Amino acid sequence: MRFLRSRFLQAVIVLVVAFCVFRFGIRPPAPWSVIKLYMAVVALAVLVHISSDSDSWRDFLRPIRDTLTRPERRFVRAVLVVLIPVLLGYYAYSVAAARPEAPPQLRAIHPAPPPSLSFRGKEMNLQGLENPLRKDQASLARHAAAGGAIYIQNCFYCHGDNLDGKGHFAPAFNPPPANFEDPGTIAQLPEAYLFWRIAKGGPGLPRESTPWDSAMPAWEDRLTEEQIWQVIVYVYEATGQRPRRWQEH
Ligand code: HEC
Question: CA-CA distance, 165 to 160, in Å (whole number)?
Answer without folding.
Answer: 5
